Amino acid sequence: MSTRETQMPVVMCIGGTDPTGRAGLAADIRAGEAVDVHVAPVVASVVAQNAKGVQHIEPVGPLLLSSQIKAVVEDLPVRAIKIGLLPSAMVVKAVADAILPLLPELPLVIDPVLGASSGGRLVPAASREWRKHFRRLAERAALITPNLLETSALLVGELPAGGRRIMRAQARALQKRYKCAVLLKGGHLKDGRSATDVLVTKDGEEQVFLSPRVPGGEDLRGTGCTLSTLIAAHLAHGLALTEAVAEARNLLLSGLMRRVEIGGAGAPPVRLPPLAGPEPMGSTEEATNEATNETTDDKERG
Fold first, then answer.
1. Does pTM surpass 0.90?
2. CATH of residue 116
3. Assigned domain for 301 exists
4. How far is the C-alpha of 124 from the C-alpha of 45, rounded, in Å?
5. Could you write out the DSSP letters of every residue in 224-292?
6. Is residue 167 part of a domain?
7. Which residues pair with 207 in a beta bridge?
8. Which residues are within 8 A (CB) of 122 and not within 5 positions of it... i.e. 6 or more apart?
């Protein structure tokens, strides 16, 4: 057995902090531990936030940011990279300059975080300069994972928010604009019993994922961070993209069903079962049926 097969995979996660430990890099580390992956956290921004919202954001300077990335790649055998909060064009440029030489040998997953689920914007505005450098990263990425609001910002209002049919058009528009695979997350879309995500691969193949809504699950913190890191972790384990997305969604659902209270004013973070393996998308026949993947040949919904 080779050394690579016996080593724990390493995923470098670049993003922001959360002093309450609910989201950001703290969520990345928890997600990695749940699937036997070592997360190397690189701080791109220090964020003061809690259940009341975002109080202050301090972007990390380009030299310190690039030095952190260099320190990781010189020391550890990184197998995948996940990017979260990049709060300014300067930070996006610094990250792009530092990691683009590492690609495409390493799969890159980008969660384009623009706002906090607790309230408040983390990126004041997705400016033209921010989008220019984001495009440099996205065009080399294995996947980007925006939610509905982030999709609207990345498309600069090109397509209005709507139902599942509009989501599919938005995902295709993102794939065309940024030339990478897109997983458009529709958890905030309140139009039925199922949560809908749309995957469009780099080759243009489309898959719609449905999962049952978990009561109170939408209140949990760190869901987006957790999902994108789980996908990167599964890519680091050698899974193909579509399989990595499906496995990550299964594990996130198990975390949404496993609410662990920590006290305080806000909702608790997502906590996955330790060293979790892929699980069915629900224990009932109805949940299993709802979790079945749809292809573009299936009946239109929305």
1. no
2. 3.40.1190.20
3. no
4. 13
5. HHHHHHHHHHHHHTT--HHHHHHHHHHHHHHHHTS-----SSSPPBP-PPTT-----S-SSHHHHHHTS
6. yes
7. 199, 295
8. 16, 45, 47, 54, 57, 85, 87, 113, 114, 115, 116
**Taking 90 as the threshold, does the pLDDT of residue 275 lie above it?**
no
CB neighbours of 138 closer than 8 A, spacing ≥ 6?
110, 144, 178, 179, 180
Q: Does position 271 have pLDDT exceeding 60, yes or no?
A: yes
Number of domains in the chain: 1
Q: What's phi and psi for 11, nearest 5 deg? A: -115, 125
Give percent of the chain above pLDDT 90.
58
CB neighbour list of residue 276: distance below 8 Å, 6 or more residues apart: 34, 35, 251, 254
Contacts of 280 (CB under 8 A, 6+ apart): 250, 287, 288, 291
- 117-137 pLDDT per residue, tens: 555 555 655 678 899 999 999
Task: Look up residue 17 and give its amino acid.
Answer: T
